[in-house]
Specification:
Layout lengths: L3 H10 L6 H22 L5 H62 L7 H51 L19
Length: 185
């Protein structure tokens, strides 16, 4: 008797694994059982049919685990998204509170001092602008060198053509016509 249907029934009645570790352990157990069955299939005469049946049963046995893995992954993504949304709400509240607390101070001060992070950003912007100018200059130099190479190539081609034209070699004599044969008459 094949013990596989009983294992499927037991797996269906058991509570679904709750964590990734439990799922991984269950998957490993299923894979181990199928590895043993694969070894048994390879000893039979009709190996292909046995392996195909084994593949289908393996797929059917892993389907609930895969579905549960997808559910766990979706739950994890939802939890991370909720946590991120909560962090954003907290930052927005903190920013709103600090903006309310700073409003009277802004009215008193003619020009509020720039935060240190702003000074760093402006330095970074200046540095990036310099990098952009340098990249543009490098690109212009590359274009100029390419233009010079193209001109040199055109000069070489023109010189070669003039050299070939300067050779006034007479054309080769035509080949003799083949003799008329009796078959062509």
């Amino acid at each position: 008797m094949n013990p596989f249907p009983l294992l499927l029934l037991a797996a269906a009645l058991a509570p679904p694994p709750a964590t990734h570790a439990e799922l991984a352990a269950e998957r490993a157990a299923i894979e181990q059982r199928f590895d043993k069955e694969r070894a048994a299939c390879e000893q039979r005469f009709s190996v292909s049919a046995c392996l195909e049946d084994l593949r289908q049963r393996r797929h059917d046995a892993l389907a609930p685990l895969v579905a549960r893995e997808h559910e766990l992954a979706a739950e994890e993504r939802r939890r991370r998204a909720e946590a991120q949304a909560q962090r954003v709400r907290e930052r927005e509240q903190a920013a709103a509170q600090s903006a309310q607390g700073e409003a009277p101070r802004r009215q008193r001060a003619a020009a509020p001092p720039l935060p240190a992070s702003h000074a760093v950003r402006s330095h970074d912007a200046g540095q990036k602008a310099g990098e952009i100018r340098q990249a543009e200059a490098d690109a212009a130099q590359r274009r100029e060198r390419a233009r010079e190479r193209e001109q040199r190539q055109q000069q070489r081609v023109a010189a070669h053509a003039a050299k070939e034209q300067g050779r006034s070699k007479p054309p080769a004599a035509p080949l003799p016509l083949p003799p008329a044969s009796a078959a062509s008459r």
